[in-house]
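Curious: why this fold?
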Amino acid sequence: MTVAMLDALISDYVAGDLPEPARVLIASHIEMKPSSALMARTLEAFAGQSLETSNMRVLANGDRRMEAIMRSAPPPLRLVQPREQHHILPRALRDHLGFDLPDVPWKTKLPGLKQHMIEHDKDDGSEMSLLWARPGRALPNHTHEGLELTLVLDGDFHDHRGTFARGDVSVADESLDHRPVAGRGNPCVCLSVLFAPIVLSGSRMGLLGDILGL
């Protein structure tokens, strides 16, 4: 599910159909992952070829997404692998924030867990934030009321699906109930985009231990 949803997000990015927080996250992911950059460039090339050969004929309702890709003027793609010299965060995110990782004004959220809120829309409950977790720190078990995108910027984390390392995107929705745990090698730094609040789940004792960072 994650791979298919991520592919759809890259397609929407090329079409210019993503809201700004998701656009920044996917643009950053494309900078960090050559395979995703290749997919985005392939979609751009296909769109260009279609423009030349199709005479922009009207498409059926089922082809609306491809029509949007063909008509869009996508932002330039940047491929950065390994990370740019002297910088930690990808350029798309640095441009949005106005600073790099050493200058993030962190606030402690829980023991061993810090957050920097970038944007928060109180009307729809969506938010965009940076998260920092100390090595081995578990986040409380939770599920979701809507889509959650998490891009790993440094370090790694794992849950029952596997390990997410630098440049990987975790795509979560209402079907996922998980307990992310930061890797033990280095702190885990992530960009999180939530389109609906999370909902704590699991046992009371387990949640208490995770909240306290035990």
